[in-house]
Amino acid sequence: MATTLLTGGTVVSATGRSAADVLLDGETIAAVLAPGSTLLGHDLAASVDTVIDATGKYVIPGGIDAHTHMQLPFGGTSASDTFETGTRAAAWGGTTTIVDFAVQRAGERVQDGLAHWHELAAGNCAIDYGFHQIVGGVDAGSLAALPGLIDEGISSFKMFMAYPGVFYADDAQILRAMQVAADTGLLTMMHAENGPVIDVLAEQLIEKGKTSPYFHGVARAWQMEEEATHRAIMLSHLTGAPLYVVHVSAKQAVEQLAWARDNGQNVFGETCPQYLYLSLEDQLGASSEEWGDFEGAKWVCSTPLRSKHEGHQHHMWQALRTNDIQMVSTDHCPFCMKDQKTLGQGDFRAIPNGIGSVEHRMDLMYQGVVTGQITLERWVELTSTTPARMFGMYGKKGVIAPGADADIVVYDPAGHTSIGVGKTHHMNMDHSAWEGYEIDGHVDTVISRGKVVVDDGSYIGTKGDGRFVKRGLSQYLI
Ligand code: URP
Ligand code: ZN
Ligand code: ZN
Ligand code: ZN
């Protein structure tokens, strides 16, 4: 087995930082040592196969993006990143594990939806990957299949209070699924928006000729995110099923989560970089020479970007500090403008929902360290350690410690990253939702289970390096 020594760096964990060398033995972390340590009298640097000099850099556990949608069929098309292109882009950005969503549709067997997702991913991924299960049709068959997911290494499933006619589950269906979750230990993930009300509001806007992407954000009112979040919390309370609310964007939804947590509930929330940086006015309301007011389609996602005049972004950063929100994922769901987003020209309801960020999450969140929004340790916690604990991978993933998988990023705080097409853009999209963003830091080296896959901007891994991660039950519950 090849051995590697990372020397001279500052090892950062969720709880602290220290100068340390890290010894890798094959795919595993063998030791975290005082700088310059010898082992039984041997100079380690002289005895290992490879030495990586991390002097002046941070050595962190590889990023875990627990919310991606590679190849998701949605809105009459499919997300433009395959498992191959999307996981490679993730690696470039310092993410060494994704958890994607296998899809079961109404009328389909959960087992078949899952098997199909394995077919899509197997042999194609650059980094390790796990699955959550989308239950797009809650019925007797899918309910009966849920407990069996645990043996498959899938300990969480997602339901939708939005998207009537697509993935939508009504309250009675959610209740039944949560009862199964409470019995089995499965973690319920919820898309919390009141879909039926949003659909009426959207129809009324279209009838008034308000068809541009901006009105996607108007229709998906924060009140309907707050309301659905509250409803999910009460169903969680009633059934005893732990609840994880995905892609939280409204400050009022955060307040609901904080309230439930203060009541001692096992209720958690994730947000995404777009809700920390982007807004209804500046992005959904954008116009360009090329696209006119359809420019905003680049940022059509659900939940939507919120108004910059209502304090959501400020409140979200604060919630990251106070642990009212526990982690940051991307909800990576890329669509090109050409031939995909343009399906909704003239009717925002037909714009495929989603933006692509899997490549930039570690950098975008590091910029929050630079600007003083979060600490260095919190950066690691939000992007790696908590995702590992939340979704039953901790010990192997999310930590630099002996016995853990050697998933490591060397991050250079003196480096710089310019985000944009033609600069650092490897996702399979014809635009970047993050065009022009500048980061005061740089992903230098990415190690996935002991193998260097990114070396100062060059991808040197191989398709199929990534393996399926069988996850255990959540390690985050109170
Ligand atoms: O806009 C989004 N979020 N697209 C992906 C599907 C979902 O709801 O997560
Ligand atoms: Zn969703
Ligand atoms: Zn999603
Ligand atoms: Zn560099």
Q: Which key terms come to mind for this protein?
A:
single chain, 478 residues, alpha/beta, Urease, subunit C, domain 1, TIM Barrel, 2 domains, eight-stranded parallel beta sheet, seven-stranded mixed beta sheet, binds N-(aminocarbonyl)-beta-alanine, binds zinc ion
Distance between the termini: 39 Å
Question: Overall pLDDT, averaged?
Answer: 98
Strand neighbour order, sheet with most strands: 10-13-14-15-16-17-18-19
Q: Quick one: CATH class of the largest domain?
A: Alpha Beta
* Percentage of residues in DSSP E strands: 15-25%
**Structural class computed from helices and strand pairing:** alpha/beta
Tell how many strands the DSSP assignment holds: 25
Model description:
The chain is α/β, with parallel strands linked by helices and 478 residues long. The protein folds into 2 domains: 3-60 and 399-416 and 434-459, Urease, subunit C, domain 1 (Roll), CATH 2.30.40; 62-390, TIM Barrel. The protein is 29% helix and 22% strand. The chain is built from 14 helices and 25 strands. It has helices spanning 44-47, 83-92, 110-121, 140-145, 171-184, 195-207, 214-219, 222-239, 251-262, 273-277, 280-284, 312-322, 361-370, 376-390, and strands spanning 3-7, 10-12, 17-19, 21-25, 28-33, 38-39, 42-43, 50-53, 58-61, 63-68, 73-74, 77-78, 95-105, 128-136, 156-160, 187-191, 243-245, 267-271, 327-328, 408-412, 417-418, 438-439, 442-448, 451-455, 458-459. An 8-stranded parallel sheet has the order 10-13-14-15-16-17-18-19. A 7-stranded mixed sheet has the order 3-2-9-20-23-24-25. A 4-stranded mixed sheet has the order 5-4-1-8, with no helix packed on it. Helix 5 packs across helix 8 (222-239) and helix 8 (222-239) runs parallel beside helix 9 (251-262). It starts with a strand and ends in a 19-residue tail after the last strand. The model has no long low-confidence stretch (mean pLDDT 98). The structure holds N-(aminocarbonyl)-beta-alanine and zinc ion (3 copies). One zinc ion is lined by residues 191, 246-247.
